[in-house]
Predict the 3D structure of the following.
Amino acid sequence: MSLPNKAPDKNNMWAEAQAQPNIALIKYWGKRDVEQNLPAAGSLSVTLDSLWTKMSVEFSDALRGDELVVNAASNEKMLPRISACLDRVAGADRPRASIESEGNFPIAAGLASSASAFAALVVAASNAAGKNRDTLPLARIAGAASGSAARSLFGGFVELQVGDTNIEVATIAEAGDWPLTVVIAVTEEGAKPVSSSEAMNRSAASSPFYSSWLEQQPADLKSARDAVLRKDFSQLAAVAEHNCLKMHSVMWGSRPPVVYWNSATLTCMEAVRRLQDDGHAVFFTIDAGPQLKAICLPDEAGLVRSALDACTGVVRTMVSGLGAGARLLDNK
Ligand code: DP6
């Protein structure tokens, strides 16, 4: 399915791009600079292939204001963040923009929809504005809108490092180098009650575990990076689960606490534990939402999916391999 091709009667200031969400194995949780949206520590993720967001951007002086349509419905709520991101791509004096977005998975439910949305947006907008930018500058612009979005500009295994004033992001191993499978157990389709931005700021301001969380990030990152480069599944599993549970401990220790899990999330964790006890190569991670993501070797995917489908409270499961970074769709 593709967005209607609006190009023929328009000037050249139109482009469409696609990006996939990414799942962090070493999490971004906390900001060094809220204004710049600079993360407090590095992170490491895998970019998916079968979940996607497509974004088209058309700049036009004929528009009275920016307009956003998400999955065929006008959306005012996300518009300010989108408009601010377009200002960074094309300059605050840019023409007004009409943006259309379409995706094949739930929005704002802890499935990294903002990551794929902003990654696709910067690629489409930069092209529509006639600016040819490399991937890293685009990733920085996307990251200023949503920290995790910077990683969706790149495919495969992606590491984000934080410098004094900016981020560095790059693929450390291609999707094809180590083709893992991600099985997502959706336990609730609705939007999350607390945004990740707000929850992060609450964690930084009030969680007694926040500073140790940040102190340990470099060691966790190194362990995960080494595991990816050596394709050591059990090392990656151990550090990723540890990192995920620490992030949620930081949230649980915040005031007021932030608890994204529901009972089905825990049921899914137990199911993964049982598979591990039986010797299967699988581990879990959970983001700012109640969905559980199980990462496994491809030949374990069928078994992992059946085990998660059988968990009480699982609404549905989705399966994805690892995929490419954000890219322009050449359908002008
Ligand atoms: C738990 O990238 O959504 O998914 O920069 O405030 O938009 P903002 O946060 P966002 O946070 C992602 C949090 C996470 C962990 C991760 O993806 O690394």
